[in-house]
C-alpha cells in the first residue's frame, strides 16, 4: 500500500459491515430468485467528493466495496426522484436495474455529494441488498481487486457481470496453477 501511495495512487476508506450472508450460495437454478442479504456501510462526504473527482479511475478492493460503490448512484437517483436518499431503507436487490440506461454515474454521485453538503451531513450510513449479476450496468467501479470465489456464489455472479465470460478462462487458469480460493486466498485485479 505504501509503494502504491508513493506512486501516486490515492486511497479512500469506507466502513463496511459484512454479514455471513455474503457467503451463502445461490441455491436456485434461477439466480433471480435468490434473496440477497443486507450489508450496512458508512461513507464520508469527503470520500463521495473524492470519488467524483476520480471518476473513471475507481478501483474497489473487495466485493462488498463494489456493492457499496454501486449502491451510491441509486441513492443519488432517489434524491433526483424523491428529494431524499431514504437511507433508512436499504438499496433494494433490483433497484439499480430500475435506473435509466442513460443515467450517468458521475451525475448521480454528484447529486449525492450535493445533497450531503446542503444537509451538512459529514457521514452517510446506509444499507444495500443490491444483486449484481450479468446484465448489471456498473456506474462507478472501473476496476476491482477480489479473491477467487466459490461456484454458485453471488460473488462469482458479480465478477462475471464485470468481466463477462472471461471469468471462466481466469478461473481455469487459477485452478490449473494452484491459486488459493476464498477469503484468505489469492487475489486478482479485474479490469473490464
Structural write-up:
It is built from six helices and six strands; from the N terminus they run H-E-E-H-E-H-H-E-E-H-H-E. The radius of gyration is 17 Å and the shape is globular. A three-stranded antiparallel sheet has the order 1-2-4. Strands 3-5-6 form a three-stranded mixed sheet, with helices on one face. The protein is of the alpha+beta class and 192 residues long. Helix 2 (45-53) runs antiparallel to helix 4 and helix 3 packs across helix 4. The model has no long low-confidence stretch (mean pLDDT 93).
In short:
The protein is α+β, with helices and mostly antiparallel strands. It has 6 helices and 6 strands; from the N terminus they run H-E-E-H-E-H-H-E-E-H-H-E.
- The rounded distance between the terminal residues' Cα atoms is 23 Å
**Basic shape:** globular
Number of helices: 6
Low-confidence stretches: none
Number of strands: 6
**CA gyration radius, whole angstroms:** 17 Å
Mean pLDDT: 93
- The strands making up the biggest β-sheet line up spatially as 1-2-4
Tell me the quaternary state. Answer: single chain
Order of helices and strands: HEEHEHHEEHHE
* Main sheet attributes: strand count, strand direction, barrel closure: 3 strands, antiparallel
Structural class, please?
alpha+beta
Approximate helicity band: 25-40%
Strand fraction equals 5-15%
Secondary structure: elements and pairs:
Elements lengths: L1 H5 L8 E3 L21 E6 H9 L5 E3 L1 H20 L22 H15 L3 E6 L14 E5 L6 H10 L2 H11 L10 E4 L2
Parallel strand pairs: 3-5
Antiparallel strand pairs: 1-2, 2-4, 5-6
Amino acid at each position: 500500500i505504501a509503494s502504491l501511495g508513493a506512486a501516486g495512487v490515492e486511497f479512500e476508506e469506507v466502513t463496511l459491515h459484512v454479514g455471513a450472508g455474503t457467503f451463502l450460495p445461490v441455491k436456485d437454478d434461477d439466480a433471480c430468485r435468490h434473496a440477497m442479504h443486507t450489508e450496512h456501510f458508512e461513507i464520508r462526504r469527503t470520500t463521495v467528493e473524492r470519488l467524483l473527482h476520480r471518476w473513471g479511475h475507481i478501483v474497489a478492493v473487495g466485493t462488498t466495496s463494489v456493492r457499496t460503490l454501486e449502491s451510491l448512484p441509486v441513492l443519488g437517483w432517489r434524491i433526483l426522484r424523491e428529494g431524499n436518499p431514504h437511507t433508512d431503507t436499504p438499496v433494494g436487490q433490483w433497484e439499480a436495474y430500475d435506473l435509466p440506461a442513460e443515467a450517468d454515474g458521475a451525475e448521480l454521485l454528484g447529486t449525492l455529494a450535493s445533497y450531503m453538503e446542503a444537509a451538512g451531513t459529514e457521514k452517510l450510513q446506509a444499507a444495500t441488498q443490491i444483486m449484481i449479476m450479468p446484465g448489471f450496468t456498473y456506474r462507478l467501479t472501473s476496476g476491482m481487486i477480489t479473491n477467487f470465489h466459490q461456484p454458485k456464489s453471488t460473488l462469482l455472479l458479480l465478477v462475471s457481470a464485470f468481466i463477462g465470460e472471461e471469468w471462466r478462462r481466469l478461473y481455469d487458469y487459477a485452478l490449473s496453477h494452484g491459486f488459493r480460493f476464498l477469503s484468505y486466498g489469492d487475489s486478482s485485479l479485474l479490469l473490464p
